[in-house]
UniProtKB/TrEMBL annotation:
Reactions that this protein is recorded to catalyse: 4-CDP-2-C-methyl-D-erythritol + ATP = 4-CDP-2-C-methyl-D-erythritol 2-phosphate + ADP + H(+)
Organism: Sphingobium xenophagum
Entry EC no(s): 2.7.1.148
Active site residues according to the UniProt entry: K18, D147
Pfam families on file: GHMP_kinases_C (PF08544), GHMP_kinases_N (PF00288)
Chain ranges of the GHMP kinase N-terminal domain: 77-152
Entry GO MF terms: 4-(cytidine 5'-diphospho)-2-C-methyl-D-erythritol kinase activity; ATP binding
PANTHER family: 4-DIPHOSPHOCYTIDYL-2-C-METHYL-D-ERYTHRITOL KINASE, CHLOROPLASTIC
Protein name: 4-diphosphocytidyl-2-C-methyl-D-erythritol kinase
Superkingdom of origin organism: Bacteria
Length: 291
């Protein structure tokens, strides 16, 4: 469906890519979810959402962009679900025509769907001038997915519980850091990766400094993700050994891995080398978003 031309009523949001600098899985809960301790950061880049208000109550969604063909615009789409959730909360039928430009790979551990849902909540709250308490917004967000509450704020934070307990957690030297995101072109199922976790609690996350995050932080989902998609091991290997590298690790349930560098120039050199050796891998050069 064609969208209205750019006009004064158009609003824009970025669905910032989410990265788990460390993700410690502590226990499997009775409800099937896992108790986590994770330091979330966000990239300066992400998917792009635009919307204009309509007065017929309909939510129209079109999807484009480099990864747009991997997604359906139907009722199961998280953008659509977020819009419906906000409509239900309002109890009225304000409408919107939304365009999602999918820049991030789908099902890739950097929050694509969760970030899109959170950005939709932010975007429509502005578009419809919604007054909603932070706690109520967080409740709507959690219903959409475990990572969605953290994505609403999109700032560096410590996340616990199944994803609903959030604490701003600045780490000296982290915000603004050069960050390379690399995806090997395979999608992995979050539920399958969590199910493959060996249920061994390897201990709490100490995120008091970048140094402890690097030395003692882990992503406990790397092993089950590699079991599902062995190319992730190759990808982690390809990120090692570059000048200026501070940390290379998998994000979320994979398959995207990230690498932090001590300068933009070091990141650019590494990006060039990795892309030259792996033409079909998706690579994004970005930075950790500063609140
Ligand atoms: O909450 P969300 O729908 O994004 O989670 C997708 C799947 O990931 C869940 O169905 C569950 O299998 C797994 N998950 C988990 N523990 C968490 C978050 C997600 O087991 N804390």
């Amino acid at each position: 469906m064609p969208h209205p031309d750019l006009d004064a009523g158009l609003m824009i949001e970025t669905a910032y890519a989410k990265v788990n600098v460390a993700l410690h899985v502590r226990a499997r809960r009775d409800d099937g979810y896992h108790a986590l301790e994770s330091l979330f950061v966000f990239a300066e880049h992400g998917d792009r959402l635009t919307a204009v208000a309509t007065d017929d109550g309909a939510i129209d969604l079109v999807i484009d962009g480099p990864f747009g063909s991997g997604l359906e615009a139907g009722p199961d789409n998280l953008v659509m679900k977020a819009a419906r959730a906000l409509q239900a909360y309002l109890g009225d039928q304000r409408g919107a025509a939304i365009r999602l430009t999918k820049i991030l790979p789908v099902a890739s551990g950097i929050g694509g769907g969760s970030a899109d849902a959170a950005a939709t909540l932010r975007l429509l709250a502005r578009l419809w001038d919604v007054r909603i308490e932070a706690e109520e917004l967080a409740g709507l967000a959690l219903d959409l997915g475990s990572d969605v509450p953290a994505c609403v704020a999109s700032v560096t934070q410590m996340v616990t519980g199944r994803g609903e307990r959030l604490r701003p957690h600045p780490v000296e030297g982290l915000d603004g850091m050069a960050m390379l995101l690399v995806n090997p072109g395979v999608g992995v199922s979050t539920a399958q990766v969590f199910n493959g976790w060996d249920r061994a609690d390897r201990g709490p996350l100490d995120a008091t400094s970048l140094k402890t995050l690097v030395a003692q932080g882990r992503n406990d989902l790397e092993a089950p993700a590699i079991a599902a998609a062995p190319v992730i091991a190759q990808l982690l290997g390809a990120l090692e050994g570059h000048d200026g590298l501070v940390l290379a690790r998998m994000s979320g349930s994979g398959a995207t891995c990230f690498a932090l560098f001590d300068s933009d120039a070091a990141m650019a050199d590494a990006a060039m080398a990795v892309q030259a050796a792996h033409r079909d891998w998706w690579i994004m050069e970005t930075r950790i978003r500063t609140a």
